[in-house]
Design brief:
Layout (H helix, E strand, L loop, with lengths): L4 E5 L4 E5 L6 E7 L2 E6 L5 H21 L2 H4 L3 H17 L5 H19 L9 H14 L5 H20 L27 H17 L6 H15 L5 H6 L5 E8 L2 E13 L2 E6 L2 H13 L18 H10 L16 H13 L4 H7 L4 H7 L25
Antiparallel strand pairs: 1-2, 2-3, 3-4, 5-6, 6-7
Helix pairs in contact: 3-4, 3-6, 4-6, 7-8, 8-10, 13-14
């Protein structure tokens, strides 16, 4: 086996060598405990020496005037750059302000305290597994979705470092779950629980009469009716403006009915439209009267002034509806109103594809999280026959 050809320059600090099975000359040097390598892409030794010397001088200058090339970027140094990039995307309308707030909170509370002093190039799958074990030790009942959010926040840091050239390869995080992603039902209100919720909201309005929170209680009441009759996500409901809502009339089964056509719905799925049920019209008209909105189609104001998460939680606690009836119990929040809309439409015999289109999601999601958990005793369209169909018995 031929021996390794080896040359030195600059008093032995620069190594120039040719491996036995390679026609090209390589070069390298030590700098503060790290060895830097480079291929000259030259097969002639004299040409390779000149290329190696030029690379050595340029790299030495860069290392001395840019300490980050030696020490590397820490997570704490990259996080502000990630947040600044997200702020620019929010200004361009590519991301929502709520998403930026969520990422900022995760970075501040979890990512920076744990990974802050770590170099981005040192974060790999073993580092992620170590972080995951620490999270489960701190919170044994940590939800899978919460861990996924923290993983995505860390990926934002690594993706930014990759785009800036601070790391050469993006690490892959592969997690194992006991249930292999078992589908779980969304948490909704059935007919009895929904009536109980509406009554609790009315009692809250009377309780807060002649207080500064009475208007908030009234808006929460209309918010519940509006969302439960449209299927909007909480983030989408916060973005609805008066000019986005248009009252339409139609005749269904010889009965004149009214509904809202909501346009420019901005949320996690981009921009879409929604056709409401009758109850949303009543809530919309009540909001217009309370806000003295004579020409709502010309107003750019938000339909809802506040995000009523805290008051809604108090109403659920008072009505003993905060936890679902399933085992183990699951907590309800404002997102349960959207699930209630989907549940009511499915149990009323509505077409699955039409429901999925109206709530801006996929048929697969409806099947995985709703249909498979709806009991046949709640459905009304199983035995409906078309008029042209004739069944014969023998």
């Amino acid at each position: 086996m031929p021996a390794l050809k080896h040359l030195t320059r600059f008093d032995g600090r620069l190594h120039i060598y040719q491996r036995p099975r390679s026609p090209y000359w390589q070069c390298g040097f030590h700098f503060k405990g790290k060895y830097y390598r480079h291929s000259t892409k030259e097969m002639d030794d004299k040409t390779a020496i000149r290329a190696a010397e030029q690379w050595y001088i340029g790299t030495q200058a860069s290392l001395r005037f840019d300490p980050d090339l030696v020490q590397g970027k820490t997570v704490r140094a990259v996080v502000p750059l990630v947040l600044r990039s997200l702020e620019e995307r929010v200004q361009r309308g590519e991301r929502s302000a709520s998403y930026l707030t969520s990422v900022r909170n995760i970075m501040k509370a979890v990512i920076v305290p744990y990974f802050g002093s770590s170099l981005v190039e040192k974060i790999d799958h073993p580092a992620w597994e170590k972080f995951k074990r620490a999270q489960y030790e701190q919170s044994p009942n940590l939800a899978r979705a919460t861990l996924h959010q923290r993983k995505n926040a860390l990926r934002l840091v690594l993706n930014h470092a990759y785009r800036m050239g601070w790391i050469k390869v993006l690490p892959t995080f592969k997690d194992e779950y006991a249930s292999n992603g078992a589908k779980t039902p969304r948490v909704w209100f059935d007919e009895r629980e929904y009536r109980q919720l509406i009554n609790a909201l009315r009692r809250r309005i009377k309780t807060l009469e002649k207080t500064r929170w009475q208007e908030d209680a009234k808006e929460l009441y209309d918010y519940v009716l509006f969302v439960a009759n449209t299927g909007l996500r909480p983030s989408e409901a916060r973005n609805v403006r008066f000019c986005d809502c248009h009252i339409r009339e139609e005749v269904i089964d010889r009965e004149r009915r009214r509904h809202l056509m909501i346009r420019n719905i901005r949320g996690k799925r981009g921009t879409g439209e929604c056709r409401s049920m009758d109850g949303a019209v009543v809530a919309f008209e009540r909001i217009c009267a309370r806000r003295k909105m004579s020409k709502p189609q010309q107003s750019q104001e938000q339909l809802f002034l506040h995000y009523h998460r805290d008051m809604f939680r108090e109403v659920l606690d008072d009505a003993k509806l905060r936890l679902s009836q399933e085992q183990p119990p699951r907590k309800r929040d404002l997102a349960a109103l959207r699930a209630t809309y989907i549940y009511f439409r499915l149990t009323s015999g509505a077409n699955v594809w039409e429901v999925a289109t109206n709530v801006r999601t996929s048929v697969q999601m409806i099947q995985d999280h709703y249909l498979r958990f709806v009991s046949p005793r709640h459905t009304t369209g199983l035995n409906v026959l078309k008029k042209a169909t004739v069944w014969k018995t023998t």
